[in-house]
Write a structure and sequence with these properties.
The protein is built from 5 helices and no strands. By secondary structure, the chain is mostly helical. Helix 1 packs antiparallel against helix 2.
Length: 158
């Protein structure tokens, strides 16, 4: 059995979960000090929901990208660059919303993130539909997060 594909899967897990860890670095102090004080829109889940949901999404994202890599190898480079670009936008959102505490700017950024995820899904669908489907929960969650972000921005403007 060739161990390389499984090692690459571990690398994809490390990258995606590492992105989540970097995002949580930006959120840690704000989740304790700033976020609880904000007015939030209807339907905001309890804080404990976010960790398990994001962990699941990062795992699905890693598997999705790995499947594309496994199928196409180096030929998947452009598609994987799109994947990593949207992952970077994901981390940037945490830095803007929680790190800089700028919900209005974060909302503009999350719209760009949503478009990048949708484009990523399209590109992965052309290459390997199952990989695209693995990203759909991520797009749905970011849609929901966009609603929450917009609501927090609107409800907490000076």
């Amino acid at each position: 059995m060739n161990a390389k594909p499984w090692l690459v899967l571990i690398v994809f897990f490390a990258i995606c979960l590492g992105a989540g860890g970097l995002g949580s670095f930006f959120t840690a102090s704000s989740v304790r000090e700033w976020y609880p004080q904000l007015r939030k829109p209807a339907g905001t889940p309890p804080s404990w929901v976010f960790g398990p949901v994001w962990t699941t999404l990062y795992v699905l994202m890693a598997i999705s990208a790995w499947l594309v890599w496994r199928q196409y190898g180096g030929g998947a480079r452009p598609a994987l660059l799109i994947f990593f670009a949207q992952l970077a936008l994901n981390v940037a959102w945490s830095g803007i919303f929680f790190g800089s505490r700028m919900p209005g700017v974060a909302f503009a950024e999350i719209v760009i993130l949503w478009l990048a995820i949708a484009f990523n899904i399209f590109v992965f669908y052309v290459l390997l539909p199952v990989s695209a489907f693995l990203l759909v929960p991520y797009l749905l969650w970011v849609s929901y997060a966009s609603y929450l972000n917009f609501g927090i921005w609107r409800l907490n403007r000076p």
